[in-house]
Amino acid sequence: MAGDAVTVTVQGADTLAATLHSAGGKLGNLREAHAAAASAVVQAAQGLTPVRTGLLRSSIWGTTAADRATVTANAPYAAFVHARTPFLTGALEQTRAGILVDYGAAVADTVDTVKGK
Asked: Percentage helix, strand, coil, to 5, in the chain?
């Protein structure tokens, strides 16, 4: 039996490698999911922001990059107000479950593109 040969043939290895490579690139750039997350947090934060003149509320905005979403309030007194009424933190807490669902769907859609044969 020591001389018996076993042969294994892998079919679709090139396709698997190519689609894994493509999926890896897509997972590194979830810009659409980041944009949705930033938008949700901005909207929630604007609803939680104390309003006297409206400047603080209007200074809340979001940006995205390939690997992140950022929400900022840049009124001169934003940090002071946030320390007393954490509107950005509250907005993230309110939207966290929906954001996680959106990211999960984006990752699942990408993983579904991986094929072997």
From this structure: 60, 10, 30
Provide long-range contacts, Cβ within 8 A and 24+ apart, for 105-110.
106/30, 106/32, 106/33, 107/27, 107/30, 110/23, 110/26, 110/27
Residue 116, phi-psi category: left (phi > 0), alpha (psi -120 to 50), beta (remainder)? alpha
Residue 64 pairs in a beta bridge with: 69
For residue range 2-60, list pLDDT tens digits in order: 678 887 776 777 777 787 778 777 777 788 999 999 999 999 999 999 999 999 999 99
- Do 50 and 87 touch, CB atoms closer than 8 A? yes
Distance CA 73, CA 68 (A): 17
Give one word for 12, left, alpha or beta, with left for phi > 0 and alpha for psi -120 to 50: left
Q: Which two tokens stand for residue 65?
A: 């990059």
